[in-house]
Amino acid sequence: AFAWYEKMRREAPVHYDEQRGSWDVFRYEDVHRVMSDYKSFSSQTRRGADGQQSDMLLMMDPPKHKKYRAIVNKAFTPKAVAAMEPRIAEITHQLLDQIQPDKSMDIIHDLSFPLPVIVIAELLGVREEDRALFKGWSDTLVEGFSGKDESPQQLAARKQQASRELYQYFMGVIEQRKVQPQHDLVSALLAAEVEGEKLDIPHLLSFCLLLLVAGNETTTNLIGNAVICLTEQPGRWQQLARNRELLDTAIEEALRFRSPVQGMVRKAVEDIEIGGQIIRRDQLVTAWMGSANRDEQKFEAADEYRIDRHPNPHMAFGMGVHFCLGAPLARLEARTALNVLLDRFPDLQAIEGQRLELLPSPMVYGVKSLPVQLRS
Ligand code: HEM
After folding, report:
1. Residue 123 alpha carbon, nearest atom of ligand 1
2. Residue 372 lies in a domain
């Protein structure tokens, strides 16, 4: 994908894809513009059958978006997120305690896949005994079409069933927190108020669901991608194990170099010129952040992973009003998971000659599995 981006940045930075019937934008400056100019590029890429705006924050435009974002910001504060650090470390230790104490583990299967699901579940007040149930639902929701044993319709039906059950489950949690508030996100969301306005129940429910969809696979991939970046060159992991001051820049650079979300879609609200091309009203535009983050016009040695790169104005979490709400949590999870890994396995290494299989969707970047050697 990175070679394709490079070619497109040079030869066709704003390009109409006949097959998909939509535009692709590749340069940093243009991606920045598409992501931040919400007046021209709407996040409402789809409408409900009734023509209504979606209840999902991610698909709302201002001014509606502003109102809901302000309310959820009140509940999802950096302080509330920071308070989770000890618990995230504990969960990480528990997960690592379960691996065979021999010489290898799979970063994805054993750590980066379960960790965000457990964190979100706890944040949302899912009881421990319901966790398996909850994990089943959220796995189904993010499942891609594999084409193996079922049709796309069957997969869609299963997803619908899972989201119905999840909604029902959260309804129960909400009812319970209404009567008896606790120190958790659902209680905070119920209480959050901006200018006398609160979240109504449908919006609260779809927000809970959005957290699952937006936060799990992305964080899994961030942790996996960071481990790839740190082990693909001998010595890097060991360097970081000795000097943790580089950990924050190492994570930001992994976000830039292998962005978990490679592209986001917008819809033109009006005819608009960008990069010398005219995009027509109602046409779709994919902003390739994965390409913007490799743009040599913006980043020196853009194709090199530099562990101490600073500043690092990557757009892995988006840009503008929809800037990732979960960025502080994702960073904290990555920092905590890597710290624990570095403590316990200062000699961790890639397995030599191993070919990693990428996830099939071009919109995300991550690997299906990531076996590593724990000791040399
Ligand atoms: C929005 C990426 C983790 C919740 C976004 C957007 C991006 C993004 C690119 C902007 C979408 C747009 O402009 O249309 C990521 C990445 C993550 C991550 C790369 C991990 C490395 C999380 C986590 C959560 C979360 C852990 C929550 C628990 C959200 C929400 C939005 C969002 C609620 C919508 C914000 C809005 O529309 O105002 N994320 N995300 N994300 N993210 Fe994340």
Report:
1. 28
2. no
> Residue 96: which CATH number?
1.10.630.10
Question: What pLDDT, in 10s, does the model give residues 50-77?
Answer: 556 678 999 999 999 999 999 999 998 9
For ligand 1, whether the C-beta of 267 sits within 6 Å is no
Q: Which atom of ligand 1 is nearest to the CA of 316?
A: 19
Is ipTM > 0.85 here? yes
Domain with 335 in it = 2-363
Contact call for residues 107 and 226 (beta carbons, < 8 A): no
Lowest-confidence pick of 112-121, 128-137, 314-323, 338-347: 128-137
**What is the chain's Cα-based Rg?**
21
**Is the CB of 315 inside a 6 Å radius of any atom of ligand 1?**
no
Look up the pTM and report it. 0.94
Residues 259-286: what's their mean pLDDT?
Answer: 97
Q: For position 145, what pLDDT does the model report?
A: 67
Domain count for the chain, please give it.
1
Residue having the nearest C-alpha atom to atom 7 of ligand 1: 317
Task: Report how far ligand 1's centroid is from the alpha carbon of 68 (Å).
Answer: 15
Q: How confident is the model over 196-206, as pLDDT tens digits?
A: 989 999 999 99
Q: Is the Cβ atom of 216 under 6 angstroms away from ligand 1?
A: no
- Say how many C-beta atoms besides its own lie within 10 A of residue 192's C-beta: 20
> What ranges make up the beta strands (E) of the chain?
14-17, 22-25, 41-42, 104-106, 193-194, 197-198, 263-268, 272-274, 277-279, 284-288, 349-350, 371-373
* Cβ of residue 211 lying under 6 Å from some atom of ligand 1: yes
* pLDDT (average), residues 81-99: 95
Atom of ligand 1 nearest to the CA of 266: 14
Domain contains 47: yes
